[in-house]
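Project channel, design review

CF: Before we commit to the Rhizobium lusitanum constructs, I'd like one complete example in the thread so the newer folks can see what an input/output pair looks like. Taking Glutathione-dependent peroxiredoxin.
RD: sounds good, go ahead.
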Amino acid sequence: MTIAIGDTLPAATFKEKTADGPVEISTEQLFAGKRVVLFAVPGAFTPTCSLNHLPGYLENRDTILAKGVDDIAVVAINDWHVMGAWAQSSGGLGKIHFLADWDGSFTKALGLDVDLSAGGLGIRSKRYSMLVEDGVVKTLNIEESPGQATVSGAAAMIEQL
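CF: and here is what came back for Glutathione-dependent peroxiredoxin:
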């Protein structure tokens, strides 16, 4: 079953690269008592993710935060090395959280996993965005096609804030 507006996020632990190496960050640490924009991509360094989805959030980071958002995070079914390299190469390191859902457990618990094996990617996350307040989903925007980043893009999220 897919997570819905009004649902509480499932407990999960991600890995994130920092200057001191990998750290674990739990959903509790990231979302408790905070207003957070979370968006997901099928894969770091993939074309739509790197050229469209992520840049929109980085370019509009200050605008999003000015609307009362405490934090922004991107999650993908990739390992923390890949997510860390993506954070570094995109200029996003230290600006938003790059969360590695390395085994896909968070994505599967949300019901937002998709089999992209036909394209050589295996099990990945659907592309989506959500506004989470104190661990509860307030808005949820799921793309119909993994190659699109319109309903889950930064511009759409800004309108919802």
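RD: helpful, thanks. The chain has a mean pLDDT of 94.
CF: The beta strands are 13-18, 21-26, 35-40, 71-76, 97-100, 113-115, 123-125, 128-133, 136-142.
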